[in-house]
Specification:
Chain A contains no helices and 16 strands. Chain A is an all-beta fold. Helix content of chain B is about 20%, strand content about 30%. The relative contact order of chain B is 0.17. The chains are: A mainly beta, B alpha+beta. Chains A and B meet through strand 6 and strand 8 of A and strand 3, strand 4 and helix 1 of B.
Chain lengths: ~220, ~120
């Protein structure tokens, strides 16, 4: 009776080119602007910070979520997991080594604009600016906005410190109140610092198990 | 809760790739979240040629950890609250090491389950 032979792991060198394997993952990958560079996020279907399943043959494992900080704009990196940690590389061939599990690719978009907030003045009866009312918080801000008061009578008012959280202008502290402002005066908002737009990505695994097409592109 | 295990393996810089790897673990659910700070990626925005870096002191990895922690703790609290309100067990990962007060750990097949307190115990 023949005895079974255990050959251990099969290497890439022993397979046909681009053979289809039962290997996939359900990662979501995207990028979000974070100042002068972007953060690439890897996460499960429940959103950032949640893990996702990866499948190899009959085995499903839950993979860590991740945040990769400092990724330049206008790049299209590829993310892989080397068994211990994530690796981010510039091209697909750099993550094809045996032992790496390709996870996904992402477009880190390098152009975009912020959605500016809208602000109105809070005046006292003497025409002093006693507050800055954020009527719409805007989105995608990475720095303070510039505030200009459109007035024909007032002068001297300046805003205080701005609180920006998650790209939104939360509040503006009162600054110098100035004098002689009128109820009809408005505020023009600009600036907010240049930011890249969010970039989408896709799981390499979402292609029926085939990791890479023959032409070297990532399967859709 | 979420924390960085106190050993080199979970907080180190890969000297070859110039990446700071921080591995965070949730000792209640066994969850994992990795933070990777790319330390050497400044490059020309047009030709992508990398610039040499001689001052990494301005990078604030504490802030990166703090931002991730806030997100993870918020997610964790929401899930624990959801499970407790409905009495639904939580399947935990192999890195689970702590049972919160009022909960108990049960084996279900090959999985470990965290059982929230019974409603009348709350």
């Amino acid at each position: 009776m023949p005895n079974p032979i255990s050959s251990g792991l099969q290497s890439s060198a022993a397979t046909e080119n681009n053979i289809v394997l039962n290997q996939t993952n359900y990662a979501n990958i995207d990028s979000v602007a974070a100042g002068s560079s972007a953060n690439v996020r890897i996460y499960g279907s429940s959103g950032p910070g949640t893990q996702y399943p990866g499948v190899k043959g009959a085995t499903e494992t839950i993979q860590p979520s991740a945040t990769i900080i400092g990724v330049p704009y206008t790049t299209n990196p590829v993310v892989a997991h080397d068994g211990d940690q994530y690796q981010i590389r510039n091209t697909l061939p750099e993550v094809l080594a045996d032992g790496f599990t390709p996870i996904g690719s992402v477009s880190v978009v390098g152009s975009g604009s912020v959605t500016l907030p809208t602000v109105s003045l809070v005046l006292d009866s003497h025409g002093h600016v006693i507050g800055w009312n954020v009527t719409s918080q805007g989105n995608g801000l990475t720095g303070p906005v510039t505030l200009h008061i459109n007035t024909s009578t007032g002068s001297g008012a300046t805003p205080g410190a701005q609180t920006i959280q998650n790209g939104k202008l939360i509040s503006i502290a009162p600054g110098n109140p100035g004098d002689l402002y009128a109820p009809g005066d408005t505020v023009t908002v600009s600036g907010g610092t240049f930011t890249g737009a969010s970039g989408g990505g896709r799981s390499i695994g979402g292609n029926g198990g085939r990791l890479v097409y023959n032409d070297g592109t990532i399967g859709a | 809760m979420w924390h960085i295990p106190n050993d080199e393996e979970h907080n180190h810089i890969d000297g070859r790739t110039h990446e700071h790897h921080i591995h965070m673990v949730n000792d209640v659910t066994g969850g994992q979240h990795d933070i990777i700070l790319r330390l050497g990626v400044d490059s020309c925005p047009h030709c992508k040629r990398p610039y040499p870096k001689d001052d990494l002191g301005q990078l604030d990895h504490i802030q990166a950890i703090q931002e991730a922690l806030e997100m993870l703790e918020k997610n964790h609290a929401a899930v624990m609250d959801y499970a407790a309100q409905r009495g639904i067990p939580i399947k935990v990962g192999p890195l689970h090491s702590r049972v919160p007060n009022g909960h108990r750990l049960a084996q279900s097949g090959k999985h470990k389950m965290l059982i929230p307190p019974r409603k009348q115990d709350k």
